[in-house]
Amino acid sequence: MSKNSRKLPVFVGVAIWEAYRFYKGKGIFNKLRYKQQHEAVSNYLETHYPNALYSDIIEVDSGWSCVVTDGGRKIMLYFTRAEDGTFIFWEKEN
Prior knowledge:
By secondary structure, the protein is an alpha+beta fold. The protein has three helices and five strands; from the N terminus they run H-H-H-E-E-E-E-E. 43% of the residues lie in helices and 31% in strands. Strand 4 and strand 5 form a beta hairpin. The longest helix is centred in the N-terminal third of the chain and has 22 residues, at 3-24. The radius of gyration is 18 Å and the shape is elongated.
């Protein structure tokens, strides 16, 4: 068995794993899958928490959520899209 044929299952496994991550919007693919949501969260944070960072965006029952870190504070940010296309936000501090 040659070296290349032994590496093939590893490459196939990595390709499948990355395809799954792309489909689920994990890691570097999160900003691609949820582009409009990232723009909305960024705009929201500029206004309310200018120096804050936020986690990957995940889908929840009624929309999306992420964790905002502002200094030592952690805030769960939930948001949904209204019928007119605007995003509606609400927060829960942990």
